[in-house]
């Protein structure tokens, strides 16, 4: 993923990212944590607050590591900090559009364009009697 610095023009400098994640809810923050931990440069774009809808939950019980429960508005920033400590970067803002091209995704965000190269390929399962759909 590449993100131009500043406004759109012909002479933009770009920063390269391997992985772009839209949304910093529990799933997005978890993906950012593990992607960054595996050494991928990772950018998370969130429009509201880290943790997403967790911020509206007064108490989350039975969550590992919190024997007395934890407030959602506390858990989101904890998760963001953990992902950031592994190298994930964060930007606030709303994604305006997402378009696919032949080899990358184009994301428009705050008058910026991000490009994420598509690396999805079908893979054959290496198991006996696996489906032959591939």
Explain this structure to me?
The longest helix is centred in the middle third of the chain and has 14 residues, at 72-85. The protein has a three-stranded parallel β-sheet, with helices on one face. A three-stranded antiparallel β-sheet has the order 6-7-8, with no helix packed on it. It has a two-stranded antiparallel ribbon with strand order 1-2. It is globular and about 50 Å long. Helix content is 19%, strand content 28%. Residues 1-14 have low confidence and may be disordered. Helix 1 packs parallel to helix 2. It has helices at residues 26-37, 72-85, and strands spanning 2-4, 14-16, 19-22, 42-46, 89-92, 95-100, 104-109, 112-117. The protein is an alpha/beta fold. The protein has a domain at 14-94: FAD/NAD(P)-binding domain, CATH 3.50.50.60. It has two helices and eight strands; from the N terminus they run E-E-E-H-E-H-E-E-E-E.
- CA-atom Rg in angstroms: 18 Å
Helical fraction: 10-25%
Strand order of the largest sheet: 3-4-5
Q: Which fold name fills CATH's third level, the topology of the domain at 14-94?
A: FAD/NAD(P)-binding domain
Q: Care to count the β-strands?
A: 8
Structural class from helices and strands? alpha/beta
* Percentage of residues in strands: 25-35%
Overall average residue pLDDT: 77
What is the CATH top level name of the domain at 14-94?
A: Alpha Beta
Amino- and carboxy-terminal Cα gap: 28 Å
Under the CATH scheme, which architecture of the domain at 14-94 would be assigned? Answer: 3-Layer(bba) Sandwich
Regions with little confidence, pLDDT below 50 for 5+ residues = 1-14
- What global shape is seen? globular
Largest sheet: 3 strands, parallel
């Amino acid at each position: 993923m590449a993100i131009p610095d500043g406004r759109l023009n012909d002479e933009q400098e770009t920063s390269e990212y391997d992985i772009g994640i839209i949304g910093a809810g529990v799933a997005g923050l978890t993906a950012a944590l593990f992607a960054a931990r595996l050494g991928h440069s990772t950018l998370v774009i969130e429009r509201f607050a880290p943790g997403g809808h967790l911020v509206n939950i007064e108490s989350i019980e039975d969550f590992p590591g919190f024997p007395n429960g934890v407030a959602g508005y506390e858990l989101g920033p904890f998760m963001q900090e953990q992902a950031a400590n592994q190298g994930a970067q964060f930007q606030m803002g709303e994604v305006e559009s997402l378009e696919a091209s032949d080899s990358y995704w184009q994301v428009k965000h705050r008058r910026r364009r991000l490009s994420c190269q598509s690396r999805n390929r079908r893979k054959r399962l290496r198991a006996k009697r696996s489906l032959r759909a591939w």
